[in-house]
Specification:
The complex is a heterodimer of chains A (about 180) and B (about 325). Chain A has about 180 residues and is of the alpha/beta class. Chain A is built from five helices and nine strands. In chain A, strands 2-6-3-4-5 form a five-stranded mixed β-sheet. A two-stranded parallel sheet of chain A has the order 1-7. Chain B is α/β, with parallel strands linked by helices. Chain B contains eight helices and 16 strands. In chain B, the strands form three sheets. Chain B has a seven-stranded parallel β-sheet with strand order 5-9-4-1-2-3-10, sandwiched between helices. In chain B, strands 13-12-14-15-16 form a five-stranded parallel β-sheet. In chain B, strands 6-7-8 form a three-stranded antiparallel β-sheet, with helices on one face. The chains are: A alpha/beta (about 180), B alpha/beta (about 325).
């Protein structure tokens, strides 16, 4: 609904028979749906903020055999070509690609805006097609979910500037990191 | 399962990344447990003279792919080389560092090899010959253990979590070359633009001085830069200061930014929200400087100073200058 309010014209909800914990099975379900569509640009987020797998975008691109540039912070499209800036360690790589192509967005690509009330109302009239999907068997099987071990509590060295000499001493003599 | 272990060693073109040595070490451990050989695929411009380094970390064999167009990561080129290496080695396990390259390439390989990937692993175990990967999820709030039930199992390893260990005696790897012929591609890698004068990426730095909302504005980061200069570190930022436009996103430490694990992380004016914590909790030693004694960061910092960053940080810079002057 939020996506429709922000400008999407139509939504398709692939309703899975279970939680898609293997990104490969999610990618296959999405690619099956997408291959019937004509598109110039496929936009994904870099990763889901639940499983943090960061796999679905490039997987779909491989399944559909379209170029894919991941982790992009800038995208310019003209004359059937796209130039994307991909954020990597220590800088960015500029990649030019033909269209259609897929991209996954890094945080700085755009600033998400809020939908206006008028858009929110209009979104309720837009179609959401719900399709039941049976996912392929998962090959990434979650065997356990645990809390990470607690980080041992540290110590307050002191207050203000007076604590600085003790801190340096501790870092040198106790922690041995300097 | 009798297949071997294949590790992707990424390079800057002519030198290997530290995270690749970590992956080679992790691969060595698995190869020993399975009693198989470890093969390392090295991709870059010219790496022949560097192959010995892979042997130091335990590589039995090196598959070498060199070429001027392999300097920067190009998905179609790297995929072709990696699939060729897989064909030759027939691995049951494929490892790569969870860098921008590893995280792009691994899912692509998984589709072509019809298998699954465990991303950003912090621990790898073997159960009945299958990889059980431990990986953080939900912003690091939980650790998932996931078994990969298909072969080859692919895992990307979070940088700075696995330790690169030299083996004794050091191996003298057999080199096998892949003749790289540039395939047709619809993508063209134009250029690499470095960000500013920064020497090191956050993920590779051993000292990080990070600033948050408590820095008050972009003009005040110079005091962090000075401390970083004295200590040979780099400056990072919290989400709040990146969202405020004070620092570029590439400086962000946390869930939607970089995951770092330096030897020393000094958090200045950072409250320590969960999404920041997940990005730096693996630092060896965490120091927090914050004027709010109740800031969550003091709950997981090793050492804390309650105080004003504008007073404490310059004092720390002076003290560090004196310290490094002495030693």
């Amino acid at each position: 609904m939020k996506a429709l309010a922000l400008g999407a014209d139509k939504a398709v909800h692939l309703k899975c028979d279970r939680i898609p914990d293997d990104p490969g099975s999610a990618a296959k379900a999405l690619a099956d749906e997408l291959k019937a569509l004509e598109f110039d640009v496929l936009l994904f987020g870099k990763k889901g903020v639940d499983d943090d797998n960061q796999q679905v975008g490039p997987m779909i691109a491989e399944l559909l055999d379209v170029p894919c540039v991941t982790q992009i912070v800038k995208l310019e499209i003209s004359d059937g070509r796209a130039v994307a800036h991909r954020e990597v360690e220590g800088g960015s790589i500029i990649v030019e690609t033909t269209l259609p192509a897929a991209f996954t967005a890094e945080k700085d690509l755009t600033v998400p805006r809020y939908a206006s009330l008028r858009e929110l109302v209009a979104a309720r009239k837009k179609p959401i097609v719900v399709k039941d999907v049976q996912l392929l068997p998962s090959r990434l099987e979650i065997v356990s979910v645990q809390y990470p071990p607690p980080h041992p509590p540290g110590k307050i060295v002191g207050r203000g500037v007076d604590a600085v000499p003790s801190l340096v001493k501790l870092l040198h003599e106790e922690a041995k990191v300097i | 399962m009798t297949g071997e272990v294949l590790v992707l060693a990424e390079s800057s073109g002519v030198t290997f990344r530290k995270s690749s040595f970590e992956a080679v070490t992790a691969g060595r451990t698995l190869a020993d447990l399975l009693n198989v050989r470890e093969h390392v695929l090295a991709i870059g411009i010219s790496l022949n003279d560097r192959v010995g380094e892979l042997g130091k970390y335990g590589a039995d064999n090196v598959v070498l792919a060199e070429g001027p167009s392999l300097a920067l990561y190009q998905p179609d080129y790297y995929r072709q080389v990696a699939l060729e290496a897989v064909k030759r080695v027939n691995p049951s396990i494929i490892l790569a560092a969870a860098t921008s390259t590893g995280k792009d390439l691994a899912p692509r390989l998984a589709i072509h090899l019809d298998t699954a990937v465990a991303s950003e692993c912090v621990q790898l175990d073997l159960e009945a010959g299958k990889i059980v990967a431990t990986r953080p999820a939900y912003a690091g709030k939980v650790l998932l253990k996931a078994r990969i039930n298909s072969s080859p199992s692919i895992a990307t390893l979070r940088p700075n979590v696995f330790t690169a260990k030299e083996v004794t005696p050091s191996r003298n790897p057999v080199i096998e070359r892949i003749e790289f012929k540039r395939p047709d591609s619809r993508m063209a890698v134009k250029e690499f633009v470095t960000q500013g004068a920064k020497k090191l990426d956050l993920t590779e730095a051993s000292v990080i001085i990070s600033g948050g909302r408590g820095m008050g504005g972009p003009q005040n980061y110079n005091i962090l830069e000075e401390l970083a200069n004295v200590m040979g570190g780099v400056v990072g930022a919290s989400r709040a200061s990146v969202d405020a436009g004070w620092r570029p996103h590439s400086d962000q430490v946390g869930q939607t930014g970089r995951t770092v694990s330096p030897t020393l992380y000094i958090a200045c004016g950072i409250s320590g929200a969960i999404q920041h914590r997940v990005g730096m909790i693996n630092s060896k030693v965490i120091v927090a400087i914050n004027k709010d004694p109740d800031a969550p960061i003091f709950g997981f910092a090793d050492y804390g100073i309650v105080g004003d960053v504008f007073e404490v940080v310059p004092a720390l810079t002076r003290e560090m200058k004196a310290f490094y002057g002495k030693t």
